[in-house]
Design goal:
elongated, mainly alpha, 317 residues, single chain, 73% helix, 14 helices
Length: 317
């Protein structure tokens, strides 16, 4: 029965094609158009149902991924909180050394002999703990306590970072000379320590030592291939200050200088006369002013203009 129905449908479609006088090239299109609508609807339903299943699977996968990320983030936050508790905060300063044991629980109270007896790794560990505590106080703007802890850390380990961090505290308190001292010590240990160079350059600038400041800012630029924008702009700023300062000093210290002798001679020769000699009245000697005036005329004739100016000034007085 099914085959007979299909044959009838094909015959019907063929007769339609023949009536419309269609060529062989377009028969596929009209054959597709003659498929019963129910078959097309079924195909559409199957397609969208399969897409829906795939979308559902993808959504489930994304949800699982989001849950995994949230779990990892929570675990990381717990680890960081635990690390902060171990490192110590201004509210729990003593907690950071609770695991050291013995006299090391209070490293600030350890003597130099006790510190010298520690292994290098143990000393570094205590120094890092003290530095972490100092960082907490620095962030809380309690600079005096931070300086104290960085100083204690330096007893255990001469690390350039500790010097630089302490210098940052001094900079916040406007103690620029101490900033320069600590940054210099840090640079002795690590000559290419850009952060220490920048802090020292800023301290030099604050104390009007522009030449030293320009040197440090320029060095920082070179070490970082001129990619440090702050160093570059600071170098330009300091260079301008240096130029203005030195120009002002040179103008203030500059001595007056006469033009060339040929210029002065030409200028004076443009007049009919440089003036007649002063003469005394009958029976009276020449005054001191007249004597100096006559001396000036002689000096002009000898082209000794500097002394001539001095004689004229004295005569005028």
């Amino acid at each position: 029965m099914a085959s007979e129905a299909v044959d009838k449908q094909v015959e019907k479609s063929s007769s339609v094609l023949e009536r419309l006088n269609l060529g062989e090239r377009s028969w596929k299109f009209y054959a597709a158009a003659s498929v019963p609508p129910l078959v097309a609807a079924g195909l559409a339903l199957w397609y969208y149902s399969s897409r829906g299943a795939e979308t559902s699977k993808k959504d489930d996968k994304k949800k699982r991924q989001r849950k995994t990320r949230k779990a990892k983030k929570s675990a990381k936050g717990a680890d960081e909180a635990e690390g902060d508790e171990k490192a110590g905060t201004p509210n729990a300063v003593g907690a950071s050394t609770a695991t050291l044991g013995g006299d090391e629980e209070n490293p600030e109270e350890m003597s130099d002999a006790q510190i010298a007896a520690l292994s290098k790794d143990a000393a570094k560990k205590i120094a890092q703990t003290l530095k972490s505590r100092g960082n907490k106080f620095f962030q809380a703007k309690r600079y005096a306590k931070a300086i104290e802890l960085y100083t204690q850390a330096l007893r255990f380990d001469k690390d350039p970072v500790f010097f630089s961090n302490r210098a940052a505290c001094y900079a916040a308190d406007n103690e620029h000379e101490k900033v320069i001292e600590d940054c210099t010590e840090a640079l002795k240990l690590e000559p290419q320590y850009v952060k220490a160079l920048m802090r020292r350059a800023q301290a030099y600038e604050s104390t009007s030592r522009f030449r030293d400041s320009l040197y440090d800012f320029t060095t920082a630029c070179i070490l970082e291939d001129f990619k440090n924008t702050l160093a570059a702009t600071s170098a330009e700023r300091v260079l301008k200050k240096l130029a203005e300062t030195e120009a002002r000093e040179r103008v203030e210290k500059r001595q007056p200088r006469l033009p060339s002798k040929s210029f002065i001679t030409g200028y004076l020769n443009s007049f009919r006369s440089n003036g007649a000699e002063a003469t005394a009245e009958e029976g009276a000697p020449l005054s001191k002013a007249d004597t100096l005036y006559n001396e000036a005329l002689e000096l002009i004739a000898a082209q000794d203009y500097a002394k001539a100016i001095e004689a004229i000034d004295n005569a005028a007085q």
